TrEMBL record:
Keyword Protein transport: no
KW Metal-binding (keyword) present: no
InterPro entries: DNA_helicase_UvrD/REP, P-loop_NTPase, UvrD-like_ATP-bd
Keywords: ATP-binding, Helicase, Hydrolase, Nucleotide-binding
Lineage of the species this protein comes from: Bacteria, Pseudomonadati, Bacteroidota, Sphingobacteriia, Sphingobacteriales
Pfam families: AAA_19
Alphabetical list of PANTHER family matching this protein: DNA 3'-5' HELICASE, UVRD / RECB / PCRA DNA HELICASE FAMILY MEMBER
Protein name: UvrD-helicase domain-containing protein
Gene3D superfamilies: P-loop containing nucleotide triphosphate hydrolases (3.40.50.300)
Length: 643
């Protein structure tokens, strides 16, 4: 056997057998079975055995990126998101890219890529583009700019049509690994498992994941249609043991899985869930109350089970959405600006009306207010209501009268281009600070700038002075002890932001050389004046709260973002706030629409299996049958009314 393999886990040895046979493989296993751990072992061994080959590894979760970075450091390893990987590999084929987009745009069945509803687009359409086709956070197909969703469709088409592209990628990367494969889209899986076959070149694709943890609608869910025993199918290697969870969590997880996979604790005495050679028991609790107060739940867990909610590394409270967290974590105003601006919704209503009614007026010189007036003129009843604010929009406008007046004074063409979405505020990064500007990030340039300021402040406060000097303008300025003193005073001033607004801190940080105002920010101010003006008046301390949250330094996480992570104490809040996609009541009663049930079961499974010691689930006002089921799942004694 090749050196080093013998010391590896048996499943990883099986993976190497597959690699020796040139077969694609899938490492599948329940939560905590050590898939991410195995992935890293495979990468290390592959790099050791193939010193001249390049390895690509794609992953979505921050925890996997962190683990890979901690355990592997090699120039031949390329860790990225799937989007960045695809774009890096197709971006130089501009001629083919242009043709592809035009073909797709002319294909009526592909509604996501459309340039003109009526006329066929000529193949010379993009010839005039100075920068060719680009991949950005927003989409403007007429200008040759594609974004996340389009990229996958375009890449799929390119690999299907040009087998040479597959040959190039296979030659470049002898090994391509995809973590959390279950949340990868069908278009991507097809590239690697179907279109790649059109090229004779050899490489090995490895998938890692768990079908029960497929929690994004766009994901393929499972690889069932590609698995098999023949050489050209995907070789599944299952992992049955659990190294993370205590026995009581494993028992619960086994009840929640719907595919019959039953996990057992590993026989590794050094596994994290073992204590002196015996698996830990842990705690599972189902707490409920009729007041719904989360702070009471926290108090109960603190007093009775010693949970420390100030320790964000050990203890996490998992909520379904960022919106449920924003208030508790202290960034409500910013969240509302990016997620609940009903003047922007009203503008979208107007835009839609213009598009759907094929109104061809030239509004380029008009203000938003004038456009509303022009559209409303002479209309009554239903026609008028189609171009008027809805009740929700009107209620928002009434409270924000000044903001509405201001929006009406803006040039309509400019205003209509501003794209506002919560991802621009909340997108978390997959890589380290240096990569913050990587094209895959959905954060907008204002938020990126604020991150830069706060990152630099943090570098300084954490005494990482060399990195601080590299990141700021200070490397040019520090020439004497006196300079150092000024720097300290400046930073001290800046750190104590007190009640300063975001605008004030941006100017301060610029003047003090901590983060200079760059072209990107200047362009943002000009192009997205409305949004900038809203954000600039928010206190910088609120942004700092958001920063802490996104850096994982608060006890809060969304249920989706917790995938791949693990904590000692996990509190899962089951919020039955009338969601379309989730229903926690139905989860316990096993009723309702099967897709909603399936989705809810999966997110609940992901959440519960994060706990390394203690798991608590909180349910506000459960029905008697929910309590009965909870007793069955958690044990009679562990279902507690804390009202
Ligand atoms: N062979 C091993 N030796 C030591 N520790 C391991 C080993 N395999 C896994 N672990 C540890 O067990 C825990 C669970 O492993 P890991 O996070 O890789 O599981 P996973 O299958 O990726 O889980 P999930 O699907 O829930 O994200 C981690 O703390 C990991 O470091």
């Amino acid at each position: 056997m090749v050196e080093g393999r013998l010391s590896l886990e048996s499943e990883v040895q099986e993976i190497f057998q597959s690699i020796d046979e040139g077969r694609n493989f899938l490492l599948s296993g329940g939560a905590g079975s050590g898939k991410t751990y195995s992935l890293v072992s495979v990468i290390r061994q592959v790099l050791a055995e193939n010193p001249t080959s390049k390895v690509a590894c794609m992953t979505y979760t921050n925890s996997a990126v962190k683990e890979i970075e901690e355990r592997v450091n090699h120039k031949n390893l390329n860790v990225s998101t799937i989007h960045d990987f695809l774009w890096d590999n197709i971006k130089h084929f501009q001629k083919e890219l242009k043709e592809t987009i035009i073909s797709l745009a002319n294909n009526e069945e592909i509604s996501k890529i459309s340039i003109d509803d009526i006329n066929t687009i000529p193949y010379s359409f993009f010839d005039i583009l100075p920068e060719g086709i680009q991949y950005k956070e927003f989409v403007r197909l007429r200008e040759g700019i594609i974004s996340h969703d389009e990229l996958l469709i375009v890449a799929n088409y390119l690999f299907e049509k040009y087998p040479k592209l597959s040959s190039i990628v296979k030659d470049k990367y002898k090994f391509i690994f995809i973590d959390e494969y279950q949340d990868t889209s069908k278009e991507v899986v097809d590239i690697f498992l179907t279109h790649f076959k059109k090229s004779e070149r050899k490489n090995v694709m490895g998938f890692f994941g768990d079908a029960m943890q497929s929690i994004y609608e766009t994901g393929i869910g499972n690889l069932d249609e590609y698995k098999g025993d023949e050489a050209d199918t995907v070789n599944e290697i299952p992992k049955k043991q659990n190294r993370r969870n205590p026995q009581l969590v494993i028992n619960l997880a086994n009840k929640l899985r719907k595919d019959g996979i039953i996990q057992e604790p590993s026989n590794d005495p050094n596994a994290p869930n073992m204590l002196e050679g015996i698996v830990k028991q842990g705690n599972v609790l189902f707490l409920h109350s009729n007041d719904g107060s989360i702070s009471n739940v926290e108090r109960y867990l603190k007093e009775n089970y010693d949970w420390d909610f100030d320790n964000s590394k050990e203890t996490k409270e998992l909520n379904l959405t960022h919106n449920l967290i924003a208030g508790k974590a202290g960034f409500r105003t910013l969240m509302d600006i990016y997620d609940k601006d009903h003047i922007i919704s009203f503008r979208d209503r107007i835009k839609k009306f213009i598009k759907e009614n094929s109104i061809t007026n030239d509004f380029s010189e008009n203000t938003f207010g004038e456009v509303i007036q022009i559209l409303q003129a002479g209309k009554i009843d239903r026609e008028l209501s189609a171009v008027s604010a809805t009740n929700t929009m009107q209620a928002f406008i009434d409270i924000n009268a000044e903001l509405y007046e201001y929006s009406k004074s803006l040039n309509y063409s400019e205003f209509s281009k501003i794209y506002v979405d919560k991802d621009q505020l909340l997108d978390d990064k997959k890589k380290d600070e240096k990569d913050d500007n990587k094209k895959g990030s959905k954060r907008d340039n204002l938020i990126k700038h604020l991150f830069k300021i706060q990152t630099n402040i943090s570098l300084y406060t954490n005494k990482r002075y060399n990195e601080f000097l590299r990141a700021t303008d200070y490397r040019y300025k520090i020439t004497s002890i006196a300079n150092k003193r000024t720097l300290k005073e400046n930073i001290d001033n800046l750190i104590h932001v007190g009640d300063k607004t975001i605008d004030e801190v941006i100017i301060d940080a610029d003047e003090k050389g901590i983060s200079l105002i760059d072209d990107k920010l200047i362009d943002f101010k000009e192009e997205k004046e409305y949004l900038y003006n809203r954000v600039k008046n928010v206190k910088f301390s609120e942004f700092q709260k958001l920063y802490e949250y996104l850096e994982g330094k608060t006890p809060f996480s969304t249920q989706h973002k917790t995938k791949g992570a693990e904590f000692d104490n996990v509190l899962v809040i089951l919020d039955n706030g009338g969601w379309n996609n989730y229903n926690f009541g139905n989860l316990f009663l096993e009723t309702g629409s099967s897709t909603v049930l399936d989705r809810t079961q999966k997110i609940f499974y992901v959440c519960c299996t994060r706990a390394k010691e203690n798991l608590a689930v909180f349910y506000h006002n459960p029905e008697a049958q929910v309590i009965d089921k909870a007793k069955e799942w958690f044990g009679e004694m562990n279902v507690i009314d804390i009202s």
